[in-house]
Write a structure and sequence with these properties.
It holds the Pfam family YycI. InterPro entries: YycI-like. The chain crosses the membrane at residues 9-26. Keywords: Membrane, Transmembrane, Transmembrane helix. This is Regulatory protein YycH-like domain-containing protein. The chain is α+β, with helices and mostly antiparallel strands and 316 residues long. It has two domains: 42-64 and 180-253, YycH protein, domain 3-like (Lipocalin, Beta Barrel), CATH 2.40.128.690; 68-176 and 257-293, YycH protein, domain 2 (TATA-Binding Protein, 2-Layer Sandwich). The chain is 33% helix and 29% strand. It is built from seven helices and 16 strands. The protein has helices at 3-34, 41-48, 74-81, 113-118, 189-197, 255-271, 287-310, and strands at 61-62, 65-69, 86-91, 95-105, 125-131, 136-143, 145-146, 154-159, 164-171, 173-175, 183-184, 207-215, 225-235, 239-244, 250-252, 278-281. Strands 3, 4, 5, 6, 7, 8, 9 and 16 form an eight-stranded antiparallel sheet that branches. Strands 2, 10, 12, 13, 14 and 15 form a six-stranded antiparallel sheet that branches. It has a two-stranded antiparallel ribbon with strand order 1-11. Helix 6 packs antiparallel against helix 7. The longest helix is centred in the first third of the chain and has 32 residues, at 3-34. Mean pLDDT is 81; it is low at 31-38 and 312-316.
Length: 316
């Protein structure tokens, strides 16, 4: 055999050997890489968002809540009349607007005994937060769970520059007799994960509270309201995201927006855009005196708000 043929044979053998060794090297390298752990979505979330232990583990079931405005009875109005230090009017037999004769100090971090003394059925409401822009305290009605941002089931307390209550508006929902069957709820961990993936939660944010309640996106002015089970997810103690607990869609609501809804409703009442049948819970007065008092109370409630804003109180 000639030397050139022998040399070619050796080269081919070495090429086959190199290919064999390369194959085993790559296979070993891939096996090492495959042992590196992959982080799942939840673990990635836990590495970037704190407070996840505040999220309930078992979502359970809940039904839609059917409710309607409570029409105030004669007994209810008598109880309103017995409240001290205020003049109260009832609009359309359900909406209460009251003006304090003398401002009342309110401490939302304490027992709020003054609130209980001056507001009818206050035990049915839960303190939600403060609208710093308009200097108002917001309380949500509870029917087993809180009802979020619904003017037909809330108390809004107007404060002056000293933090004292000067006016309040109030309405109450009552549970309808017929209620739908319970539905399975999505776990609140699922919307929290989606919020993070959609950059609505940022790395370093903290989930400070999660609670179940009810909300409808478009509160109906009359008749039965259908309120969906809703997760309220509070972030950093200063922002709340509301997630439909059966469908998963979400929105952010702020106290000042809800407060502005009240402003719009009061404006509609005062300028006649909305039908308004009023009853002043006070002593005897003729029609002219009654109308004068109504106009004064509606305008003073609104002026209290505009005065706070123009003075820069609570501006962010």
């Amino acid at each position: 055999m000639q030397w050139g043929q022998i040399k070619t044979l050796f080269i081919l053998c070495f090429l086959v050997l190199d290919a064999f060794l390369l194959y085993h090297f790559l296979k070993e390298d891939n096996s090492v890489i495959s042992t590196i752990p992959e982080y799942g979505e939840e673990e990635n979330l836990r590495n970037n968002i704190t407070g996840l232990d505040n999220i309930p583990e078992e979502p359970g079931e809940a039904s839609m809540l059917h409710a309607q405005r409570k029409k105030l009875t004669t007994t209810d109005k008598q109880e309103l009349q017995e409240l001290p230090n205020q003049t109260t009017m009832v609009i359309n037999d359900y909406f209460i607007v009251s003006q304090l004769d003398d401002p009342v100090p309110i401490n939302v971090e304490g027992e709020m005994a003054n609130l209980r003394e001056h507001i009818w059925n206050d035990s049915e409401y839960q303190y939600s937060g403060k609208d710093e822009t308009n200097q108002r305290l917001i309380f949500f009605q509870q029917i087993e769970n809180p009802i979020f941002y619904n003017l037909s089931g809330a108390i809004i307390v107007q404060l002056n520059s000293d933090g004292e209550m000067t006016h309040y508006a109030q309405a109450l929902l009552k549970k309808s007799e017929e209620q739908p069957e319970p539905e399975e709820l999505i776990s609140p961990m699922e919307p929290v994960t989606n919020l993070y993936k959609n950059n609505e939660l940022s790395s370093g944010n903290e989930i400070t509270n999660v609670q179940m309640g009810y909300q409808n996106l478009l509160p109906l002015p009359n008749g039965v309201q259908v309120l969906a089970p809703t997760w309220e997810i509070t972030v950093n103690n200063n922002k709340s995201i509301y997630v439909n607990a059966t469908e998963g869609h979400s929105l952010i609501r702020e106290p000042k927006d809800f407060s502005n809804e009240l402003n719009s409703q009061l404006t509609d009442y005062s300028n006649g855009s909305s039908t308004m049948n009023t009853e002043v819970i006070s002593g005897d007065m003729d029609e002219e005196e009654r109308q004068s008092l109504i106009d004064e109370m509606l305008s003073s409630f609104q002026e209290a708000t505009s005065g706070q804003s123009s003075n820069g109180v609570g501006e962010e």
